[in-house]
């Protein structure tokens, strides 16, 4: 895929970096952060695919991607993008609205396609929502990520993250403990997945997202052997 060019907005990019840095500093009050995404290609479309454990984990993912050399555009539900104050801010920074009320409509992914054709680095949560598993084990991924990758020839970077759920999430929160403590938030970039040179049908799309989630789950199990994620009941 040959990315199109959009007008450069260096001032907006600088503001984005400042805002992400400030949010990450606030997160740092409640968590020790360990960001390990290796340097990313400076240009060209890229899909970043993290597991989802908390409403604040996008802060950690954004900071990790910025440190790795790219400005991430998050795929966010249209309901959030339509909120007053929040929505205009997200749109100002070119995040991408996705209408999840039309899951069977092929056109629902068109806003993401446009961003990728513009050469953007797009963060697309494969699960589509925060994990509903009691132990935050990665859930079943939706095929949209695989379809986009194969259809447009865009590589996918699986990202394994953990710990933000102990800042904002279900169950015991570290900062509310006795005594209060800081959580540990980790974000790790895994092996880049190149899309197959095959049609972007349902089966191939499912295979690709399954590979993404398998990488993430294996990494979490390897680095967190005592966490509930490491075993199924």
Give a description of the structure.
The chain has 233 residues and is α/β, with parallel strands linked by helices. The protein has a single domain, classed as 3-Layer(aba) Sandwich (Glycerol-3-phosphate (1)-acyltransferase), CATH 3.40.1130. Helix content is 35%, strand content 16%. The protein has seven helices and seven strands; from the N terminus they run H-E-E-H-E-H-H-E-H-E-H-E-E-H. A seven-stranded mixed β-sheet has the order 1-7-6-2-5-3-4, with helices on both faces. The chain is globular, with a radius of gyration of 17 Å. The termini are far apart. Mean pLDDT is 89; it is low at 228-233.
What keyword list fits this structure?
alpha/beta, globular, seven-stranded mixed beta sheet, disordered C terminus, 7 strands, 233 residues, 7 helices, Glycerol-3-phosphate (1)-acyltransferase
Fraction of residues in helices? Answer: 25-40%
Helix segment tally? 7
* Contiguous runs where pLDDT drops below 50 for at least 5 residues: 228-233
Structural Rg: 17 Å
What's the short story on this structure?
This protein has 233 residues and is an alpha/beta fold. The chain has one domain: Glycerol-3-phosphate (1)-acyltransferase (3-Layer(aba) Sandwich), CATH 3.40.1130. It contains 7 helices and 7 strands.
């Amino acid at each position: 895929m040959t990315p199109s060019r959009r007008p450069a907005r260096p001032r907006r990019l600088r503001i984005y970096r400042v805002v992400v840095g400030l949010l990450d500093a606030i997160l740092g009050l409640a968590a020790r952060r360990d960001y390990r995404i290796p340097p990313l290609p400076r240009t060209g479309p890229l899909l970043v695919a993290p597991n989802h454990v908390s409403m604040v984990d996008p802060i950690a993912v954004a900071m990790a991607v910025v440190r790795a050399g790219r400005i991430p555009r998050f795929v966010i539900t249209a309901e959030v993008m339509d909120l007053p104050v929040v929505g205009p801010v997200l749109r100002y920074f070119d995040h991408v609205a996705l209408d999840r009320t039309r899951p069977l409509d092929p056109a629902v992914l068109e806003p993401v396609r446009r961003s990728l054709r513009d050469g953007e680095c797009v963060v697309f949560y494969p699960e589509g929502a925060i994990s509903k598993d009691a132990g935050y084990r990665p859930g079943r991924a939706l095929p949209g990520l695989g379809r986009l990758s194969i259809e447009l020839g865009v590589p996918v970077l699986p990202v394994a993250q953990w710990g933000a759920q102990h800042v904002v999430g279900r169950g015991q929160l570290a900062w509310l403990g006795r005594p209060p403590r800081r959580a540990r938030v980790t974000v790790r970039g895994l092996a880049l997945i190149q899309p197959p040179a095959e049609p972007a049908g349902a089966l191939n799309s499912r295979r690709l997202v399954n590979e993404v989630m398998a990488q993430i789950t294996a990494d979490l199990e390897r680095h967190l052997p005592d966490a509930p994620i490491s075993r199924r009941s």
